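Archive transcription. Copying these from loose printouts into the bound notebook so they stop getting lost. Printout 1 of 2:
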Amino acid sequence: MSTENVYYATGRRKTSAARVFLKTGSGKMTINGKPADEYMDTPSGRAAVTQPFHLTDTKNKFDAYITVRGGGTTGQADAIRHGISRALVTADEALRGELKKAGLLRRDSRMVERKKYGQHKARKSTQFSKR
């Protein structure tokens, strides 16, 4: 991959982190070495990944090479969406308004709450017994 006109950005969500490399091309998307449709098996995941391109009408203008690690399918899809949005802004600053309005440039900081000792889950505890 040549270094000319390659736009890089990182996207994060939950425990997932995606590295996105955008290059001017025909709209080919590769995630962890696989085609995007093959890697993202859910329709909602596919929609989330392509959302920044649809919003900005740049569907067939960039090739995306993406590596993503950690988390599950939803976290990875949202991390990729975040990374693509940020990379599009580095490629063309004029797209910032549309992406910001849609809320795609903000990192979703919600994380899973940790389990506490003496409890079943983060908040679920044992049933109260008076006697």
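Printout 2 of 2:
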Amino acid sequence: MTTFQNSKAQPRRTRRRMVATLALVVVGGFVLRGVTAFADQPAADEPTIPTGANFSSWSDNGQDGQIVLQFFKGDMPIAGAVVAGTVKNDINCAPDAEGLSHCHNVVVLADGGAIEAIHVHAMGRHPCLFPGQRLSISRLDGDWLVATAAN
């Protein structure tokens, strides 16, 4: 009786192919998950939109008259308080690769204090703050402020 050498090798090859295919599927799944997770992240220079903001994209910051500012330094208002201030400057407004400006503003408060903040926005849709502009400012969430133009 003759035995074939390949009779044992064929199930081994099939098993190896199945293991290799399974490994490719698992690795491919991790790669796909990593790519989609990266695509869902904001651009490196863009902070995450804070809880309580009335928009879902930085290009909409300023819609409905509410301007979200990232607190940089100065006199942070206490939670629930509204403070009045006047914009002193608007600098570093060149747009980034995404077309968003990260303007730096100093707002002098009515009580003599000051707030330095970063205003992330799309200048073509919503204008920068301007020197002399009067604002009402309150704390939004963590290190975030919301400002509205004072009447």
